[in-house]
Amino acid sequence: MTDISIAQAYLPHTGKDEAIAFYRDVLGFEVRSEVGYNDLYWITVGPVGQPNVSIVLTPPAVDPGITDDERRVISEMMAKGTFGAINLTSQDVDETFATLQAGDAEVVQEPTDQPYGVRDCAFRDPAGNTIRIAQAK
Question: What is the pLDDT of residues 6-46, one digit of tens each?
């Protein structure tokens, strides 16, 4: 195997406008595409200067094989912040934390030196997904 890299990760969103406002205005990502179907939206965002890496924000639980009980569980997990998560890096996690906190992002964890060797912080996006940001090494 050679030359394998991550192209896209998927996170659910619960509102198009709120998701765009968070990922564009708070995180500073660019909105690359919006695809709508009926009242559902798929939004692709990504870090400026990294065109080959994207997060696709999807409507939750729209896969045809998901049962009503599974949809309920997914909704409950999203509300608790235990369904979706992504880890990002920043050159200065303390500065990034201050910027995100000023943007009214929901703080989960202030910058902390972890026993496993990283300094990181955590937030939740409007859908409850955990966004953990570690200091780049």
Answer: 899 999 999 999 999 999 999 999 999 999 998 899 999 99
DSSP label of 23: I
Length of the chain: 137
- Are 59 and 12 in contact by the 8 Å Cβ rule? The answer is yes
When pLDDT is cut at 50, 70 and 90, the band that residue 63 belongs to is confident
Question: Could you tell me where the DSSP H helices lie in 6-67?
Answer: 16-20
Tokens 């943007």 map to which residue? 103
In 13-136, beta strands by DSSP E: 30-37, 40-46, 54-58, 85-90, 106-113, 119-124, 130-135
| Strand pairing category for 106-113 and 119-124 | antiparallel
Check if the beta carbon of residue 58 is closer than 8 Å to that of residue 12.
yes
